[in-house]
């Protein structure tokens, strides 16, 4: 199940360009890189197509892409002749839905294989409103023994940045309350579409 990380161009020049572009679009930055080499990143709230380009700019400007980063995609996408190579270069980590091990276990194995890894996940799973978060990110971090970094785009203040670094305890409700307290002041581009910060009762994080 080995999946070697892709080595991408890194450097201060790219970060400086990203910082210039962030200022050019009228946004600001907050936060610092976490003092660890493995972690799960969540972006909330995610309600607009604009979250991707603005989020990538802010993350690059803050140096987040100095890590070997990734996001989960279906293995069929990775296997596609042309698109697969591009998606993998961008950070796509294949998930085999037909495998013996579920998606959470597959990502836990990826963390165990690598010396440095940042896995980016949007806990809402969609830009439209849903009454809960998907819990997979939490169970990946819990089982892999890595912290969760809260990131955000605050459209009210036009600020993108890093929030708290939370090591999941297994006390789901207590950990969710940490997320609720932090994100309560963060304004989405479309506030009505921001998901409620809770897990579905029957969601065990194995999707």
Total number of distinct structural domains: 1
Mean pLDDT level: 84
Strand tally: 7
- Overall SS class: alpha/beta
Task: Give the fraction of residues assigned to helices.
Answer: 25-40%
Rg computed from alpha carbons, rounded to a whole number of angstroms? 17 Å
Number of helices: 7
Regions with pLDDT < 50 over 5+ consecutive residues?
Answer: 4-9
Strand order of the largest sheet: 1-7-6-2-5-3-4
Please describe what this structure looks like.
With 207 residues, this protein is α/β, with parallel strands linked by helices. It has one domain (13-193). It has 7 helices and 7 strands; from the N terminus they run αββαβααβαβαββα. Strand 6 (148-154) and strand 7 form a beta hairpin. Helix 1 (12-24) crosses helix 2 (51-61) and helix 5 runs parallel beside helix 6.
Question: What's the layout of helices and strands?
Answer:
Blueprint: H1 12-24, E1 28-30, E2 38-43, H2 51-61, E3 69-74, H3 75-78, H4 83-90, E4 92-95, H5 103-113, E5 117-121, H6 136-144, E6 148-154, E7 159-166, H7 172-183
Parallel strand pairs: 1-7, 2-5, 2-6, 3-4, 3-5
Antiparallel strand pairs: 6-7
Helix pairs in contact: 1-2, 5-6
Produce a short descriptive summary.
It is built from 7 helices and 7 strands, in the order αββαβααβαβαββα.
């Amino acid at each position: 199940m080995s999946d070697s990380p892709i080595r991408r161009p890194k450097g201060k020049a790219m970060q400086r360009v990203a910082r210039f572009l962030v200022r050019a679009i009228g946004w600001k930055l907050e936060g610092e890189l976490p003092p660890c080499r493995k972690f799960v990143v969540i972006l909330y709230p995610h309600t607009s197509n604009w979250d991707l380009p603005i989020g990538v700019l802010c993350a690059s400007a803050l140096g987040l892409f100095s890590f070997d980063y990734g996001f989960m995609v279906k293995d069929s996408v990775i296997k596609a002749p042309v698109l697969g190579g591009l998606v993998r270069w961008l950070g796509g980590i294949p998930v085999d839905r037909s495998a013996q091990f579920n998606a959470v276990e597959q990502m836990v194995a990826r963390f165990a294989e690598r010396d440095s890894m940042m896995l980016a996940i949007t806990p809402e799973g969609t830009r439209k409103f849903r009454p809960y978060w998907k819990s997979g990110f939490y169970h990946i971090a819990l089982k892999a023994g890595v912290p969760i970094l809260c990131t955000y785009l605050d459209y009210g203040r036009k600020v993108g940045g890093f929030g708290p670094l939370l090591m999941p305890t297994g006390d789901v409700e207590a950990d969710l309350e940490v997320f609720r307290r932090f994100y309560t002041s963060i304004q989405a581009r479309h506030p009505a579409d921001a998901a409620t910060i809770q897990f579905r009762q029957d969601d065990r994080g194995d999707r």
